[in-house]
Design brief:
It is a single chain. This protein is an alpha/beta fold. It has a domain at about 1-155: Protein-Tyrosine Phosphatase, Chain A (Alpha-Beta Complex). The protein contains 13 helices and 17 strands. It has helices at about 15-20, 45-50, 70-85, 100-110, 125-130, 140-155, 155-165, 175-190, 250-255, 270-280, 315-325, 350-355, 360-365, and strands spanning about 1-5, 10, 30-35, 55, 90, 210, 215-225, 230-240, 240-245, 285-290, 310, 345, 375, 380-390, 395-405, 405-410, 420. The strands form five sheets. Strands 12, 13, 14, 15, 16 and 17 form a six-stranded antiparallel β-sheet that branches. A hairpin with a 2-residue loop joins strand 15 (about 395-405) and strand 16. The chain is elongated.
């Protein structure tokens, strides 16, 4: 066993029957036992519950170049949590020599900001050794993650962050950012509940260059499963459009009789898609979409918005087209759609709003990346860049734009977005 003076924590080998009966191990202030050995506890769960102990099986490996860094970071988070509450923790592995000490040394760095000294195999400690061997990510990368984790649990750091959030400026970075703020505000003012869309053109109220063609209005629709798992899309339709056949769930199953689909087949997505594809081929811009299109690929059969929007190929026009392109990620949706929702960074107040630490904010508070930009790279190509918060942290969006007649095409880049600050999601929807 190895005890540490910087916290109520100790590293041990796999717990034996004698250990379970040792009052010097199972003390009154012991709160959790983290087992990284890969071998489950021999004692039943009731044994630990009777003693008000939390047990966690979080196996780490010393082989194959992969020590499960995500598991390591999660274990460090648990140690930080109970350290703040002055409770004792035990980390055990097979022999208490490497893996358990590595976890505690990572915890030390997260809490203290510097490395614990405990020489191992010619290296300053076990954590540094495992990074050098390739079992863990490169040391600078891991240090960065540990520091962020420590800041999350550091009350001083969090108070500092809270104070900064209350004092940073909400002034938009540049004209593009200001127009994006106006665009987002206009979207929030829309009443698009229950698939009852009317003319959505007012979200283009700040546009100076991109215009919808005469005789058309901006409209929207949901695609997916109604009120369950669907996402928002924009399209243009004629002002005098007549109501189309309702694209609702029951209608789809009446249409699917030709495929001999019964009520019991509702979960067969391939059959649903087959019927939907046949049905959607009938759509044109004189039709009015009502209710949700019951297909995740329905947008393929709806006239692309770019065919009815004129976009001059200049910086302002390209930026306004970009706003329309990202609009669905700012609108309503259901369930898994939330993974795609973004919060564009337009000011310091938004940049810091979801930062986990002061250092994360400061890293980009003075960066040129925070300014939304449009770069025309040729007579027919351009690149738009902006930062946005998403489910996995802060990302840099780089959208390729191509001139297409009197409009443009914006394709999804291969990597959307480029990760600047990664935060592991704390929830599942």
């Amino acid at each position: 066993m190895k005890s540490y003076s910087f916290s109520k924590v100790s590293a041990r080998g796999y717990l034996t029957e004698a250990d379970y009966n040792n009052k010097y191990i199972f003390t009154d202030d012991l709160k959790q036992i983290i087992n990284v050995s890969g071998k489950p506890f021999e004692k039943p769960l009731s044994f630990f519950r009777e003693r008000d102990l939390i047990t966690r099986n979080m196996p780490l490996t010393e082989k194959d170049g992969d020590m499960e860094v995500e598991t390591l970071l999660e274990a460090v988070g648990y140690l930080l949590f109970w350290d703040r509450r002055d409770k004792r923790s035990i980390v055990c592995c097979a022999f208490g020599v490497n893996r358990s000490r590595t976890v505690i040394e990572a915890f030390h760095y997260a809490k203290m900001g510097f490395h614990f000294e405990d020489e191992y195999e010619g290296y300053a400690n076990h954590l540094i050794y495992n990074c050098a061997m390739g079992y863990l990510p490169p040391l600078p990368q891991l240090e960065r993650e540990l520091k962020r984790l420590g800041d999350e649990y550091n009350p001083t750091s969090q108070e500092r962050l809270k104070k900064m959030k209350n004092n940073v400026s909400d002034h938009c970075y540049n004209e593009y950012a200001s127009q994006m703020e106006r665009f987002i505000s206009d979207i929030k003012s829309l009443d698009i509940a229950d698939d009852k869309y009317e003319d959505l053109s007012r979200i283009m109220s700040s546009f100076k260059q991109a215009k919808i063609k005469k005789g058309y209005v901006l409209d929207g629709f949901q695609a997916g499963l109604p009120h369950f798992d669907s996402s928002m899309y924009l399209h243009a339709r004629r002002k005098e459009a007549t109501e189309f056949v309702p694209f609702d769930w029951d209608d789809h199953f009446s249409q699917m009789k030709m495929f001999e689909i019964t009520e019991e087949d509702k979960q067969h997505n391939d059959k649903i898609e087959k019927a939907a594809h046949l049905h959607f081929k009938q759509f044109n811009d004189a039709m009015y979409i009502r209710n949700t299109l019951c297909s995740w690929h329905a947008e393929k059969y709806v006239r692309p918005i770019w065919q009815d929007i004129t976009v001059p190929f200049n910086e302002q026009g390209i930026w306004e087209a970009t706003l329309l392109f990202i609009a669905p990620r700012l609108m309503s949706g259901y369930w898994h759609w939330i993974y795609c929702r973004i919060t564009p960074v337009t000011s310091d107040s938004i940049l810091i709003s979801r930062s986990h630490s002061v250092d994360d904010y400061m890293e980009y508070a003075e960066s040129d990346l925070r300014y939304p930009s449009v770069e025309i790279t040729s007579e027919s190509t351009a690149t738009v860049r902006f930062m946005a918060w998403g489910r996995y942290g802060l990302g840099l969006w780089e959208l390729p734009v191509v001139k297409d007649g009197d409009s443009v095409k914006i394709e999804k880049p291969k990597e959307v977005p480029k990760s600047l600050i990664y935060y592991k999601p704390k929830y599942m929807v």
